[in-house]
Amino acid sequence: MITRVRAVWRDALALLFALTDRRTPAGAKLMAALALAYALLPLDLLPDLTPILGVADDILIVPTLLALAARTLPAPVLTQAQTRSLSVQRRLPWLIPAAALTVLTLLSLLGWTIWRALGS
User: Fold this and answer.
1) By C-alpha distance, which of 119, 101, 105, 102 is closest to 49?
2) Distance from C-alpha of 66 to C-alpha of 78, rounded to nearest angstrom
3) Residues with Cβ < 8 Å from 58, sequence gap 6 or more?
4) What is the C-alpha to C-alpha distance for residues 8 and 73, in angstroms, rounded to an integer?
5) Rama region for 24: left / alpha / beta (φ>0; ψ in -120 to 50; rest)
6) Which runs of E-coded beta strand occur in the chain?
7) What are residue 52's phi and psi, to 5 degrees?
8) Which CA distances in Å does 59 have to 10, 71, 79, 89, 114?
9) Is the pLDDT of residue 48 over 60?
10) What percent of the chain clears pLDDT 90, i.e. is strictly above it?
11) Using one digit for the tens of pLDDT, what is the confidence trace for 56-83?
């Protein structure tokens, strides 16, 4: 499980580094921005409060958009970004659990806030 989380974190960090590169095509930047917006904005195809299906659309759509963005990257940009990502991962091993905890905390707070707003 930890190995899988590290791999996902490495790839996400590499994509972030690649998107800041000026050689990255605009289409890749747009797809990554759409994935981020879809993940963060409260507007979804299926509301998150719908049991299982509400989160399932996020789990399918966001990684698909990110994978499409990664596929449009030039090979030198992707290679350089992956090397940079591995370097950060080696220097900051605490970053993975800290990021996971932060994301889980923010999602919990968001869910609690929505639940309270709908319950009032």
Assistant:
1) 119
2) 13
3) 38, 39, 44, 48
4) 18
5) beta
6) none
7) 65, -55
8) 18, 19, 26, 24, 19
9) no
10) 7
11) 777 777 788 888 888 888 999 989 988 9
The two three-digit tokens of residue 18, written as one number: 């690649």
CB 77 within 8 A of CB 14: no
So what's the pLDDT on residue 80?
93
Residue 76: its pLDDT value, please? 93
Residue (of 111, 81, 85, 112) closest to 99 by Cα position: 85
The token duo for 10 is 């490495």
Question: What does the domain layout of the chain look like in residue ranges?
Answer: 2-94
Kind and range of the H or E run holding 61: helix 53-71
Q: Are 19 and 29 in contact (CB under 8 A)?
A: yes
**Chain centroid, CA 84 distance in Å:** 18
> In 3-state terms, what secondary structure has residue 35?
helix
Q: How many residues does the chain have?
A: 120
Take residue 87 and report the two structure tokens written for it. Answer: 């370097």
Residue carrying structure tokens 């990255």: 24
